[in-house]
Amino acid sequence: MSAPILLVEDDISIAIVITTALEDEGLDVVRCDTIEARDRFLAKDGFSLLLTDVKLKDGDGIETIGTVRDNYPELPIIILSAQNTLDTAVRATDSGAFEYFPKPFDLDELIRAVKQAIGTSASRPVPEQGDDGMALPLVGRSPPMQAVYRMITRVLRNDLTVLVLGESGTGKELVAEAIHQLGGRTSGPFVAVNTAAIPADLIESELFGHEKGAFTGAVNRHIGKFEQAHGGTLFLDEIGDMPMQAQTRLLRALQSGMILRVGGREEVPFDARIIAATNKDLLPMIEAGTFREDLYYRLNVVPIQLPPLRERGDDIAALARHFLAQAARDGLPGRALTEDAAQMLCRQPWRGNVRELKNFIFRLALLAREDVIDAKAVRAVLETDGYSQMPAIAPPGSGDTPERGDDLSGALGRWLAANSPEPGEIYARAMAAFERPLFTHMLDTTSGNQLRAAQMLGINRNTLRKRLVELDIDPEEFSPRGTG
């Protein structure tokens, strides 16, 4: 049997759960709840692993890790924390911890990490500390964001290519900025380029540069984004919109580490970390022949999936207050948000994700008449913006519901009057009622072809399949062979 594990945890219920789980795996656990007791145990006994919480009764577990590493350099360390911010995740990584787990954590994952740490019996090297005053670009403590933070910390000490995936407005560029700021290339430039915003005939020149006289109007040599990002990070946003010819040249550059300026004859080496991002599902594009499969695998070395705001409702209030503070720094009036106002914001769908929320909060800071923003003030701006779900829905027979018109708006009005959903649940109920006829119409249009239906809807094929199962819709009923 290996040497025992030292568990430092002052929450007795968590300590018992971890101890029981590890002992069930045949591991020996010694438990304590303070830094002072930890140091006393370490001094007299040999341990195979230190498993420690951050906030302890007598201090910060991370701040004292340096001393532990100095005295026991071969001891692997796993850090647990309820202080679930990107800052905590980065501090844990910078301390040289083998692994970091935000609470609540998956017990099976923790057990696997413990076994792996004991097997390696070596901590990660401690990197140089960055600027303590660095402003971290990401906000949120919800479980989906914890997964993002953990993935970010895993790529900070290497130059692996990262592909950031997520809907528009979820903050993909912020993830790229965080990796750059906190990683090993922070002293170099961060160069961002939106590949969808560059005309197809200019994208190669923008990315790789061009020589004087390469084409009409090329009166001087132009240094492209790859060379501009030398020593730093190149962020390629909206990579799914890149033309096929440019995809081919991008693939060659990534494979060789060299670029060829348009009109040039000699290849030029580049030294930049590549982070790409897209709001599209690239796999159907590969099947359709509009995105290169080999480029996809070259970019998708470390994927980071950003959750939409609707899946991180616990973060909306914190984000709203963060944006109010940002608005004040930008010269707008300083505002505070009441709890009922925050809850009203949490009930919104925010289809434009964090970007939409930010724009709304800035508008709210400008238009609110009081320094303390309450639910009434939020409702006023929501109604101005056309959020129809917030005003109370008139009951059937009230005479306020549209009775004419065969358009979608008229149908929606009649459905709302007939069903009278409660404020706060209108969006979910309306979408559930709307999806069935929408999906059946698209399947009928595509003769049951799910891939084509998903592409026309602009959603992930797996998402479509999941919703079809949940709505009990059989796509075979719409195929030609299913109608005979």
Automatic annotation (TrEMBL):
Task: Give me the Gene Ontology terms describing cellular component.
Answer: cytoplasm
Gene3D superfamilies in alphabetical order: 1.10.8.60, 3.40.50.2300, Homeodomain-like (1.10.10.60), P-loop containing nucleotide triphosphate hydrolases (3.40.50.300)
Keywords, A to Z?
Activator, ATP-binding, Cytoplasm, DNA-binding, Nitrogen fixation, Nucleotide-binding, Phosphoprotein, Repressor, Transcription, Transcription regulation, Two-component regulatory system
KW Nucleotide-binding (keyword) present:
yes
Q: Which SMART domains match?
A: AAA, REC
SUPFAM superfamilies (alphabetical)? CheY-like (SSF52172), Homeodomain-like (SSF46689), P-loop containing nucleoside triphosphate hydrolases (SSF52540)
Give the location in the cell.
Answer: Cytoplasm
Superkingdom, natural source: Bacteria
The entry lists its GO molecular-function terms as:
ATP binding; sequence-specific DNA binding
State the Pfam families in the record. Answer: AAA_lid_14, HTH_8, Response_reg, Sigma54_activat
Q: What is its main location?
A: cytoplasm
Biological process per Gene Ontology, one example term: phosphorelay signal transduction system
User: Is Nucleotide-binding one of the keywords?
Assistant: yes
What does the function comment of this entry state?
Member of the two-component regulatory system NtrB/NtrC, which controls expression of the nitrogen-regulated (ntr) genes in response to nitrogen limitation. Phosphorylated NtrC binds directly to DNA and stimulates the formation of open promoter-sigma54-RNA polymerase complexes.
Q: What is this protein called?
A: DNA-binding transcriptional regulator NtrC
